[in-house]
Amino acid sequence: MAEAHQAVAFQFTITPEGIDLQLSYQALNQIYRSGVRSWKKRVSRMRNRVIKGVYPASPSSWLFVVIAILATMYMRSDPSMGLIAKIQQHLPLRYGQTMLSALVFSTLLWLSLILALRFCLKLLLSYHRWMFELHGRVSNTTKVWVTLVRLLSSRKPLLYSYQTSLPHLPVPAIKDTLSRYLLSVRPLLTDPEYKRMTELANDFENNLGNRLQRYLKLKALWATNYVSDWWEEYIYLRSRSPIMVNSNYYGMDFLYVTPTSVQAARAGNTITALLLYRRKVNREELKPVRHAQSTVIPLCAAQYERMFNTTRTPGLETDVLQHWQDSEYVAVYHKGRFFRLWVYNAGRLLTPRELEHQIQRILDDPSTPLQGEERLGALTAGDRVPWHQMRKQYFSFGINKRSLDIIERAAFFVTLDDEDQGMRGDDPAGNLDRYAKSLLHGKCYDRWFDKSFSIVIYKNGKNGLNAEHSWADAPTVAHLWEFTLATDAFQLGYTEDGHCKGDVDRSLPCPQRLLWDIPAEVQTQICISLTEAQSLADDVDCHVFPFQEFGKGRVKKLRISPDAFIQISLQLAYFRDRGGFCLTYEASMTRLFREGRTETVRSCSNETCAFVKALEQGESAEQCRRLLRMASEGHQNLYRMAMTGAGIDRHLFCLYVVSKYLGVDSPFLKEVLSEPWRLSTSQTPIQQIELFDLKNNPDYISLGGGFGPVADDGYGVSYIIVGEDMINFHVSSKHLPGDGKSP
Questions:
Q1: Which helix (H) or strand (E) holds 332?
Q2: How far apart are CA 18 and CA 672, in angstroms?
Q3: Which DSSP string do the residues of 458-479 spell out, in sequence order?
Q4: Per-residue model confidence (pLDDT) at position 644
Q5: Long-range contacts for 194-202 (Cβ within 8 Å, ≥24 apart)?
Q6: CB-neighbour burial class of residue 257 (10 A; exposed 0-12, middle 13-18, buried 19+)
Q7: How many helices (H) and strands (E) does the chain have?
Q8: Residue 597: is its pLDDT beyond 60?
Q9: What is the pLDDT of residues 197-242, one digit of tens each?
Q10: How many angstroms separate the CA atoms of 543 and 249, rounded?
Q11: Phi-psi group of 469: left, alpha or beta (phi > 0 → left; psi -120 to 50 → alpha; rest → beta)
């Protein structure tokens, strides 16, 4: 009843003397402060819209244009060449017509200049030849281009300032895509198989292909990005199989360091760091992420919009991503119980020490789970259709709907795990593998896999995250996680006894326990989903290891791309493991374009295969070095082409989608899109190296993250290049090989 009393802002009673109002000034004060915070956010958003709306100009430049026009008019000159007079004729005012018409003309001129500047910036950002130039051999054209880009973007941009100036993803010519495709599969096919595939490609190009291409070009003219919406829908949201392991991925804590062993304290700092990052995103205070090879080229920031307050909700045929403007709480799971933890009090963000205090209250709560509550999260780990049916039938009304809404509308999800994890004990390597599996799937019911991301805080203070894939790709989540780890360890810090810094307001209301009424039918489906998820989790194997014999420093001395070196090494490892080559997927980003996501680099190339064969056949060292350099240069070229919109797979995927809409079948496209990716690879980039001082803090090394295998008989390989002397690998596979088809 105490909580109910605090929630009432005023009470009244009727007496013989009249009405007696009893105001709760504390409650009214909280309402006032919460309202002030809300209005501050609205004003900030409006201000940011204006600033980024006129970028690369500034709002103050309008005043400069107005003063310049008025000054020329004062000197008896007409800079408008008669336009001001024509505007004056259409104004209904009797007084001040000249001044008002000059202001209207100045505003129109200012807007025209902004559009012209934005068009010029867009043209400049469409230039990608710089990426193909050799290091140290920059052309004069590129030097002039860099100068112009810096000149036009010299003002300090907000997070989304460049969005309208980014170019649209181009649609490659069908002939170019098909020729690149045939080149990519040549080392994987016998001569008869390659001849057959060439005939299929030629038939597709001469007949159905051009028809599909016309529709695709029409979409490219109309849509912001001709790939991204279909990619999100058909690759992610329309999948009816479990997203746990198959889609979601994970990120790990520091390798050697755990800043505190106090679980509640680590949770307090981690939640605070995440909310500080959200504040920066909302205020657009984050610097736009730029391309690693250039300090002037911005990347698309659209994926940041749905980072927080976002949930994937299940549907019958397709899931839906729901995003809310704001959320003042996080959802917490501990020992089978769900809680709502308010992170604001009277419009003020709770301090890390206060969050630690609230988390400790949850840890100390002796209550037991309600019937069916403990394993409720298994519904998000199983097939999507049963989860949709249960959600529609049993979670669309009453207390179940209220509790589910709280989870889905939360800023993010937090699991207070009752296990210890990390590289520890007598078996550090084995424990590291178990750490990866725990983050990938946990107990299959103690994560909420539908949330945009879930944070896991272990009993020994180790942490990590599990991210849903449809709303964004790993580099965006990695950017968030880098900030979180650095802010936790180096900015917020801990006291000597491992607790969060700051004071505690012990009058804070307790975290709210969520209530459920879970009938027997739902409990039965929970058991079914959990059995399915557990089978999937038991089948996946993870191995995480830091490679420290050498790193990118030694590779760069050989004038070879570190990424190309690792990809070639993976081909060599696969060849030695399986005795052959396979179709290999390496993720490359296309965020040089507006709303860009990823493209595939088919890194099993003719040049790479030639090097591997030469090395395995005992060719001379000189010959192997020459072939290695050719393979590296070839891989870099493939990567650059994928980044600049000249990839293969997204174009073919979209042509396939168009064919389905038209109701026509293509034997060529059907075969291409059914080929299994037995080796799926991805590099986790370090984008904010300035946050980590590895010289003075060498133990604060990021482990990166990983994902499950794509094919039943394949491998998933994620790697992160840390500093100059270390590469961390995350390798996953399945215990029981299937028939090689993609799940």
A1: strand 329-334
A2: 82
A3: -TTS-EEEEE-STT--HHHHHH
A4: 95
A5: 197/671, 200/667, 200/668, 200/671, 201/668
A6: middle
A7: 23, 20
A8: yes
A9: 999 999 999 999 999 999 999 999 999 999 999 999 999 999 999 9
A10: 14
A11: alpha
Question: At 486, which helix (H) or strand (E)?
Answer: helix 474-486
Structure tokens at 300: 């698309």
Question: pLDDT tier at 281 (50, 70, 90 boundaries)?
Answer: very high
End-to-end CA distance of the chain: 52
CA distance 350 to 359: 12
Q: What is the rounded distance in angstroms from the CA atom of residue 223 to the CA atom of residue 231?
A: 14
**Nearest Cα to 41, choosing from 307, 355, 349, 301?**
349
Q: Which has the higher per-residue pLDDT, 157 or 697?
A: 157
* SS3 at position 556: helix
- Tell me the C-alpha to C-alpha distance, in Å, between residue 147 and each of 12, 143, 151, 168, 287: 70, 6, 6, 23, 20
User: Is there a contact between 636 and 607 (Cβ–Cβ < 8 Å)?
Assistant: no
Model confidence over 426-442: pLDDT tens digits? 888 899 999 999 999 99
In the three-class reduction of DSSP (H, G, I as helix; E, B as strand; rest coil), residue 626 is classed as helix
DSSP 8-state class, residue 491? I
| Residue tagged active-site, from 168, 357, 441, 469 | 469
Q: How far is CA 251 from CA 13, 466, 475, 649, 716, in A?
A: 56, 7, 11, 27, 15
Contact 315, 387 (CB under 8 A): no
Q: List the Cα angle 402/407/413 in 5-degree steps.
A: 165
Question: Which residues on neighbouring strands pair with residue 453, listed in sequence order?
Answer: 467
CA gap 740, 14 in Å, rounded: 77
Q: Which residue is it, tokens 């500093």? A: 723
- Does residue 469 carry a catalytic annotation? yes
Evaluate if residue 545 carries a pLDDT over 70.
yes
Look up residue 222 and give its two tokens.
């109309």
Task: Calculate the CA 641 to chain-centre distance.
Answer: 22
Amino acid making up residue 284:
E
The DSSP result for 650-713, as a single string, is HHHHHHHHHHHHHT---HHHHHHHT---SEEEEE-----GGG--TTT-TT--B--EE---SSTT
CA distance readout (Å), 656 to 141, 227, 364, 650, 740: 38, 12, 55, 10, 22
Q: Determine the residue type at 488.
A: D
Strand-pair partners of 337: 334
Query: pLDDT at position 34, please?
Result: 63
Q: Residue by residue, what is the 3-state secondary structure of 122-176?
A: HHHHCCCHHHHCCCCCCCHHHHHHHHHHHHHCCCCCCCCCCHHHCCCCCCCCHHH
What is the Cα 456 distance to its own chain's centre? Answer: 18
Q: How many residues does the chain have?
A: 743
The SS3 assignment for 593 reads: coil
Look at residue 561 and give its three-state secondary structure.
Answer: coil
Mean of per-residue pLDDT scores for the chain: 90
Beta bridge partners of 588: 599
Contact present, 714 and 604 (Cβ < 8 Å): no
Residue pointed to by tokens 């070879």? 560
Q: 56 with 152: CB under 8 angstroms? A: yes
CB neighbour class for 193 (10 Å; exposed up to 12, middle 13-18, buried from 19): exposed
Rounded CA gap, 93 and 104, in Å?
Answer: 14
Q: Which fold has domain 257-539?
A: Chloramphenicol Acetyltransferase (3.30.559)
